[in-house]
Write a structure and sequence with these properties.
- Residues 14-403 form the Glycosyl hydrolase family 13 catalytic domain.
- Pfam families: Alpha-amylase.
- An eight-stranded parallel barrel has the order 1-2-5-9-10-11-12-13. A five-stranded antiparallel beta sheet has the order 14-15-16-21-18. A three-stranded antiparallel beta sheet has the order 6-8-7, with no helix packed on it.
- It has 538 residues and is α/β, with parallel strands linked by helices.
- Among the domains are: 11-105 and 177-225 and 238-381 and 441-454, Glycosidases (TIM Barrel, Alpha-Beta Barrel); 465-537, Immunoglobulin-like (Sandwich).
- Helix 5 packs parallel to helix 6 and helix 10 runs parallel beside helix 14.
- Helices cover 25% and strands 17% of the residues.
- Bound molecules: 1-O-alpha-D-glucopyranosyl-D-fructose (TEU) and calcium ion.
- The site of 1-O-alpha-D-glucopyranosyl-D-fructose has 13 residues, from loops.
Amino acid sequence: MAKHNWWQGAVIYQIYPRSFQDTNNDGIGDIPGIINRLDYIKSLGVDAIWVSPFFKSPMKDFGYDISDYRDIDPIFGNIADFDRLIEQAHQRNIKIIIDQVLSHTSDQHAWFNESRQSLINNKSDWYVWADAKQDGTAPNNWLSIFGGPAWHWEPRRKQYYLHNFLTEQPDLNFHNPEVRAHVLDNIEFWLKKGVDGFRLDAINFCFHDEKLRDNPAKPEKKREGRGFSEDNPYAFQYHYYNNTQPENLDFMKEIRTLLNQYPGTVSLGEISSEDSLATMAQYTADEDKLHMGYSFELLTDDYSARYIRETVQCLESQMLEGWPCWAFSNHDVTRVASRWSKNGVNSEQVKMLTALLASLRGSVCMYQGEELGLGEAEVNFEDLQDPYGITFWPNFKGRDGCRTPMPWTNQLNGSFSSNKPWLPLADDHLEKCISTQELSSDSILNAYREFLTWRKIYPALVTGNIEFIDTPEPILAFWRHTNAQKILCCFNLSDAVAEFKMPNALNSTPLSPLTHNKGQYQANKITLPGFSCFYAMS
Ligand code: TEU
Ligand code: CA
C-alpha cells in the first residue's frame, strides 16, 4: 500500500486550553497544563492534538478574538511555554495543530485600532467599512451569528464596519491583497516554529460580497440547525453574501502554496455554509486548496442510521482529492453523550459511538472529555460566560455546557485547579473523572484506548474506502477496504437488541475491538445487543 500522510485517518484530540488543566491556580487552564498532561494524551492513542486559540486576546469570544497573532496570551503562558509544548509533544510523537482565526480580528488588534481612526490611514481599507444608508441605518440586511445586525457604527469614520460574530470581532477585508499578505505572514510565523498544521476557523467567512447585496430570506421550513433559536433572525436568511464568496477559493490556494513549503503540514478548514458538504468538496478539490474539511454534519440532533449513511455517502460522492474529517463534539455544540441520548448518558452508547466515529472514512476530531463520556453540563445563568448564550438565554443556553473544566480526579474542582474555575464542574462529571475511570477495566476511558489501539492494526480502518450496506434502522453497517484488506463494521444505534442478515456468508471469525458490547454472528445473521458493535474481516 502506498504510504499515506500522517493526517489521513488520524485521530485528532481537541483541547480547549481554558478548561484542560490549570497550573498557576488562577482558575483557567494554560499551556503548561497541557504539557503536564501529555502522557495522558499519549495514553489515549491519538495521533495529534488541535489546541483551540491561546493567542493574545481580550477573551470576548474566549480566544477567537485575537489581538496579536504572534504572541501567547499571558493567561495561557508565553512563547517559551509554547516552544516547550511543541518539543514535548513531538518527543512523544504527537503532532500539533493550532487554530488560526483569520476572517476577523479582535477590535483591540493594532490593525483595527488604526483602521477605525479615520477614513484615510495606512490600514483604512483593512476591514470592511461601508457608509450608512440615506436614513442612517446599516448598509444592508446582513446579520451577526451572535445576534443583531452584522454592522456596527464607528463615529470617528462615520461609517459602519462588518462583524459576522461579536461586535468585538471586526471582519478583515480579504479583497485587500495587503491583508492577505500579512495574514499569510502570521501563518508562516507558526510554521517556522514547527507546528504540524492548522484548523482554520470559519474559513469560508474571509471574503464578503463587495457589492454588499442583501442576503435572501430563507423559507420558514428551512430555519433549523445548530444553535437555532426562534429569537435569532440569523436563521431566517441565507448567507450567500457575507460569506462563501468565490474569491475565497483562490485564497485557499495561497494558503496551500505556503503550506507546501513546509512538507508534512496540514490544513483543516472549518466550513459552515448553507450547503456545507458541497462547499467542503470545493474547498478541498484539486490538491491545490485545503487538505481536509471539518464536517458539521454529525454535530446535529439527528443520529439515525439512515441520516449518518446518507450524510457520509453524500460527502463521498462529492469529495474527490480532499479528505473528510468527522466529529461528534466540539467546543461549540452540545456534547454528543447528551445530544444523542434519550435518557441521560449511556456508557455503552458512548463506547459504540467512539468506535463508529473512528471507523468512518476520514480523520476524526475527538473533543476533550469525549473519552470520558461526559455529558453536557448544566450551567446556571449566573455562571454563564458565553456571550452567545447570554444573548439568547433561555431559548439557547450558549456553549458553556460543553466547555466546563476536565475532571482529573473527584477531589476539589476535579484537580483542574485549586482555585475557583472559570466555569463550575458538574457533579456527574466528577463521578466520571479520569482517576476513577483509570481503575476500572470496562470504563469508557479504557474502552476508548482499547478501540484506538486496536484500530491502528488495520490499515483498512485508517485509510480504506467506505462502502455502505443497506440495513434497516437501527443498524448502520459498512465495509472499509484497501486492496489488501476488507473489514465489516456494524453498529446498533438503539438500546434494544437488533439483528440483520448478511447477503453472503462471512468466511472469517469476528474481530474483537472491545472487551464488552459485542455483536454475534451465526448462519449469516448478525445479532447486535443494544448499543453494540460487530467487526469482521472478509
Ligand atoms: O465557529 C464558527 C461557526 O461557524 C459558528 O457559527 C459556530 O457554529 C457557532 O459558534 C455556533 O455554535 C468558530 C469557532 O469554533 C467559535 O467558537 C467562534 O465563536 C467563532 O468561530 C468565531 O470566531
Ligand atoms: Ca492558569
